[in-house]
Amino acid sequence: MAVGVALLSTACASVGPAPSSLGPEHGLGPEYGSAVAGFSFAADTFEFPNEIRARNPGRPDLYANYCFVLARGLRQFFAFARFDPAAARLSPDAYVERVRAVGARAPWEPPLPADDRVVIPGYANLREFSRAQEAAVKTGLGGRTWTLVHWTNWRVAFPVTHGQQAEVAREVVDELDAGRLVQMLVTNWPKPELNHAVVAYAYRSAPQGVEFLVWDPNDPAEPGTVTFDAQVSRFRASHLYDTEPGLIRAFRMYYSWRL
């Protein structure tokens, strides 16, 4: 909490970024101050995207509106799965069952020790696995219906206070400092453009506040950014796929059985 308070309270003074030894495998330059240990953007994310209906009219097989499923699944794989590239590969049906076992764990539970994790044999990481076994991964992750009607989604329809958004920013910083990925619901409703889930995995101080680096299910190829602007105590979509930069609201997702 101390780090988050310091970053947010001094953001207006244009604090320079903290030094970091994190490399490009994290999707980070040397200027990033803090990232979840052990997480690599290049290795620990899904290869395939959540597709956008407006960009794919008429496609009957579209994998769309799965951003909540993919963001939650990313956290679950990071916390509960282990890859063993030397082991023999399984059938697609067997991989479906392994993915279901990973997804059966609540994403807010503590990470499992290596020996207790679900083993994914034959692949080195989630990128490689989801590239080769895309159909099995999608089937194992399951449907989207309950994520779309989850009661916490109704938060997008209500106004928020500046203090509440500042508290969200502090909580995200604290979670990242503690080594936990953070699933965020980001929205600019009532504009019908952004009602979406991303996963924050790093942050740095920025001229006006705090910049969060995120994995965006709509754009698995490169990191996105969501910025907390301390001057107005609001979040901004500073670099999200197919989203006009501007003020948004942000909430944490799936960090307890209630929220």
Can you offer a commentary on this structure?
This protein has 259 residues and is of the alpha+beta class. It has two domains: 2-38 and 149-252, no CATH class; 53-145, no CATH class. It is 27% helix and 21% strand. It contains seven helices and nine strands. The strands form two sheets. A six-stranded antiparallel beta barrel has the order 4-5-6-7-8-9. A two-stranded parallel sheet has the order 2-3. Helix 1 (2-10) crosses helix 7 (162-177) and helix 3 packs parallel to helix 5. The longest helix is centred in the middle third of the chain and has 16 residues, at 162-177. The radius of gyration is 18 Å and the shape is globular. Mean pLDDT is 85; it is low at 1-23.
Quick description:
The chain has about 260 residues and is α+β, with helices and mostly antiparallel strands.
The overall pLDDT, averaged over residues, is: 85
Query: Which sheet architecture does the biggest sheet show?
Result: 6 strands, antiparallel, barrel
What is the helix/strand order?
HEHEHEHHHHEEEEEE
Structure class: alpha+beta
Distance between the termini: 20 Å
Q: Provide the β-strand percentage band.
A: 15-25%
Sequence of strands across the biggest β-sheet: 4-5-6-7-8-9
What's the alpha carbon Rg, rounded to whole Å?
Answer: 18 Å
| Extended strand count | 9
The DSSP helix count reads 7
| Count of all domains | 2
Helix content: 25-40%
Q: Which runs of at least 5 residues are low in confidence (pLDDT < 50)?
A: 1-23
Query: Which outline best applies?
Result: globular
